[in-house]
Please model this.
Amino acid sequence: MKDLNQELQQRKANHLYRSRRVSDSQQQPEMIIDGRQVLCFCSNDYLGLANHPDVKAAFIKGIETYGAGSGAAHLINGHSRAHHALEEELADFSGYPRALLFSTGYMANLAIAQSLLERGDTVLEDRLNHASLLDGGLLSGARLMRYAHNDAIDLARKLASRESGEKLVLTDGVFSMDGDIADLPEIAKVCTEQDAWFMVDDAHGIGVLGSQGKGSLEHYRLSSTDIPVYMATLGKALGTAGAFIAGSDDLIETLIQKARSYIYTTASPPAVAEATRASLNIIQSQPELRSQLNDNIRYFRNSCKQLGIALTHSNTAIQPVILGETEKTVAASEQLFAQAILVTAIRPPTVAEGTARLRITLSAQHSHAHIDKLIEALGKLQQ
Model:
C-alpha cells in the first residue's frame, strides 16, 4: 500500500495542499469565514440570488409542500411536479424542446458522452475544458482528443482525421478559470460541416450573458439548431443547486433511458426546484441585476488598469490575476485574507504549471466601495 501521509506531506511541500474554510453566514459579499468577517470575491453567485428573499421564500414553501427530500430517483417516485415544471420552464427559457434535470453539473457532463458515444467513436474537447467534461469523455470509452484552446481551425483538422464513428465536440461556453468566452459560431460551423454533435457547458454563462440572461447562445445569437446539446448549472447565477441538459425530444429520451448519472441517483429535493423557478423568474424580470454586474466588471477592470494590475482579456464576472508561481499565489491569497478579503488561489492541476492565479469573481451585489477595498489590497501585493 502507498504511504498516503508521505504523499500528503509532499503536496504541502509543493504548495498544492487544499484546505476548506468554514462559513458561518449566508452567501453574500460580506461573510463570516473561519470566524472572521471578510469581503468575498470568489463566489459564483454572480447575481446574488443565493440569498435573495424571493428564492428563500420559494425554498421554504417547497419544503412545506414536498418535504425535505425527494426520497428516490426520478425514475422511481422522486420526480415531483416541481421538478417537472422547472424542466418545462428551463426548456422554454433556453429555447429547446425539452430539458432534463440532474443533481449536479458534474453528473450532467458525465451523462452526455456516456449516452451518445461508445468505443470506436471520438470526443473532442477544448484543452481548457472543465474537469467534468474531460472525465465524461474519458468514461465514455470513446477516443478522447483535445484541440487547442478556442481554436476552430485545429478542431476542424482533428475532426477531419476521424473518418468513422460518431463525433462529439464539448466546450465550456465561458471558461471557468480564464473567464473568456468560446468562439461558438465558428465551432458550430465546423461541427455542422463535419457532421459532429456539439455540446456547450454554459455553467458560467446562463443568467449573466445576453440581454435576457439566456447565456452564451443569446450572446452570439445562436439557436438550438447551431448547438443541439446545451447544458447549464443552477448553482451559480441562479443561486440554487443542480444542472440541466436541454435538447431535442429524442435526445432527452435517450438520456432518460441511458444516462447512468441520471438513472442511478436520488433526485434533488423538490424544494430546490421551487427555489430555482423563483430564480429563473428573477433573471427574466430583473435585468438590472445583470446591468449592475456588468457595471462592476467595467469598474474593476478600469480600476486595475489605472494601477497597472495585469488582467486577462475576460469581460465576464471571472477576472483572474495570473501570478504564475504556485508559492507566490498561495502567499498572495493569504495576504489578502489577512486584510479580510477572500480570494482563492487556483493552482495546478486545476490550471497549467506556471499559470497559478488569484481567481477573482464579481457579483451584482458588490458595491464600488467593496471593489475599491479589493483594488487597494491588490495594489499592496505589487509593492
Remarks:
- The longest strand covers residues 318-324.
- The chain has a mean pLDDT of 96.
- Residues 19 and 142 are 35 Å apart (CA to CA).
- The first helix runs from residue 4 to 13.
